[in-house]
Amino acid sequence: MYGAESLRLPGAELAARYRAAGWWRDETFLDDLARAARTRPEHPAIVAYRGDTPRTICYRELAELVERFAGALAALGVGRGDVVATYLPNVWQLTPLWLACARIGAVSAAMFPALAERELRYTMTVSRAPVCISLDRVDDVDLGARVAAAAPDTVRHRVVIGDGSAADAIDFAEFFLDTEHPTPDPALALRPDEPAVLVCTSGTSGQMKAVAHTSNTLYAAARAGAEPYRLGPDDVIVVPHPHTHMAGMTYGALMPLQLGATWLTYDRPSDLGLLLDSIEAHSVSWAYMSPGYLVNLIAAQRERARDTSSVRRIVSGSAPLQPDLVESVRDTFRVPVHALWGMTENAAVTMTRPDDPDDWATRSDGRAVPWMEVRIDADPGEDAGRLLVRGASQCLGYLHQRDVYDACFDGDWFDTGDIARPDGRGGIRIVGRRSDLIIRSNGMKVPVLEVEGLLARHPGIKELALVGYPDPAVPGSELCCAVVVPDGQPPTLAELHEFLGGTGMARVFWPDRVQFVWQLPKNSLGKIQRAPLHRRLELAAAPR
């Protein structure tokens, strides 16, 4: 058993309240699959690109694959309460494997190929997974060998998808596809309020967490993407980000499954030309993409235009949307872009809506979905304050880190660690992380994300992070440094000041110095690690 006792399982009263409101249900995604396989068996469920070759899996075939994979997992000794680790990019096997785990009462631990040995070992150890399924390799990285090196003794079976099976590993095609196994008892299937998925995440400190969700918390999360935009079974959905991340899993797979719709996946999402070709070929109607991905996609579309007229909505999260990007999306794809804010712990909490002003996504992260609540605790006289949330898509906790998760709560409100302010229309605008807060000598708090977002538009900046460091003249206060990865000729501090002045940003928020680096430190999830930058600046400012 993996340690469900370390999680905050939902109480009967809370579960009943969420069900009465329609936010939770007595079904799971397995029921959605069975319904779609019965009512529209030949309708495409997954169109999965491996390289530039697509494989289409209809709902009938998807249901058959889930049964076959469930039998194979049971034959490996996986039972109720066990964890199966999946170390995979967006390949067609991923979703049926998750569903196969649920079919036999097991939990999926979603790990993506960017995780290195340290994070792999942590996740497999904390989950006590007896089975790990990986691809043979991604680009020049031998994933099978990486799993073999990282696997603790609790991993009894390593399964490899592909031609280059690692030593002592089980060949996926032979065991899961070509071998017949007994059909597991349907009574084994996970119930709606039982832990179903572990999603790996980490803060900028690099501390890994295995975040536990149920079918019902994921159902609430999936509804958040579908209902505001009136999605239905005939939509075609694209999320070209790892489906082992919360956004990719929820909106790229579980949301279309719940709708009986079609979703596209790519093992090489960096091939923007292929993605645009597939949008045209399959009449994609809804997409979720990060701002950085959108910038590159716009450039690829302008280089060679495809027919993207089927796209009705684009939703973006993970970073603030800047006005020039929103305008570029509208000019290039002729659709609005909406902002979404959430966390691995709760998926989408707020989002801008179709009835908001066209440019609202540049000024707001939107209003809360009906089944989530937000609260801003600001100090007297302050506009912004700490952001707390609660509701039906909130996770069960961090596996084997109950004390860490409990420390995030103020009563029954989850403290997100973010700073937010009201947007004036009943929603919020994220200002930054409390851990990244820069407080001036006059007590003013620098809105880190807003300043970073503006500076990111400077043509001489490829990437940057705003970091505070001690003000030697005023103990307890900080100065502000822009740590910049230049793009071409590095901009001077005076040029950055002139640029910010042109945007209307208050002078008190301008950086006091600029420092250039070749690259910013990041963890394996791609998040900028500010702590090393802060320590470096702190040492540089220390008296000698």
TrEMBL record:
The keyword Ligase applies. Residues 34-399 form the AMP-dependent synthetase/ligase domain. GO terms for molecular function: medium-chain fatty acid-CoA ligase activity. PROSITE patterns: AMP_BINDING. Gene3D superfamilies: 3.30.300.30, N-terminal domain of ligase-like. Keywords: Ligase. Residues 450-527 form the AMP-binding enzyme C-terminal domain. The keyword Ligase applies. GO terms for biological process: fatty acid metabolic process. SUPFAM superfamilies: Acetyl-CoA synthetase-like. Belongs to the ATP-dependent AMP-binding enzyme family. This is Cyclohexanecarboxylate-CoA ligase. It comes from Actinocatenispora thailandica.
